[in-house]
Protein: IclR family transcriptional regulator
Amino acid sequence: MTALDKAFDVLESLAEHERVTDIATATGLPKSTVHRILRALVDRGFARSDGNGGYLPGPRIFTLAGKVTHRFDPARQAGPALARLRDTTGHTVHFALRTGDEAVYIEKLMGLRPYQMTSRIGMTIDLHSTAIGKAILADQTDDEVTAFCERSGLPRRTPNTRTTPVALLADLAQVRVRGYAVDDEENEAGIVCVGAAVHDHAGRLIGGISVSTLRHEVSTSDAYAFGPTVVAAAREASQSLGAP
Structure:
């Protein structure tokens, strides 16, 4: 390990531990090394003494976190994962964040096919009839979903839309088992999507990503075959946002 590696390990451990002994145990470093690094962190404002022999995160950590958060762009952070998903499948990729009882597209990567989806960045989508939306709802309890159904009314978008709480809950139960959701012409006739949830640095669900294509290009079994790839991309996107 380099000196920089050791310093980073101590700094990360400081988020969970206060005592030198505990930090040494967590990092596997000698207590003398931990002491030396902590003194340097204190000098730079990244740590501070608690007055009782322990150490706490210093003010510069919060200042730095505030600056980073201000510049933080989820779409940009997840960009490499989205691009790989588009290049792997060849189809259009969307990234949407939940906002209340809807989700809004914050990124769209056009597929490698000679046609364009009508979706656009800034467009809001329903949760009950889209792959991203159902991936989001699957993270909630049945009671929370039932309350959502009452608020939204589950409007019918196509003949395939789940318009009753029973039908939607049955679908979400399968989403939880598979790890991904499928929109089989439920939001727009002729369009099939596969989506998975994305989480933030605290493990909270914030939205989802999806692959979208035309029905005549994929069979139902082909659409489901995209599932594991979409899940892997969603996990990569989540990790790029700091998710554990």
The radius of gyration is 23 Å. Residues 74-240 form a domain with the Beta-Lactamase fold (CATH 3.30.450.40). The CA atoms of residues 15 and 57 lie 7 Å apart.
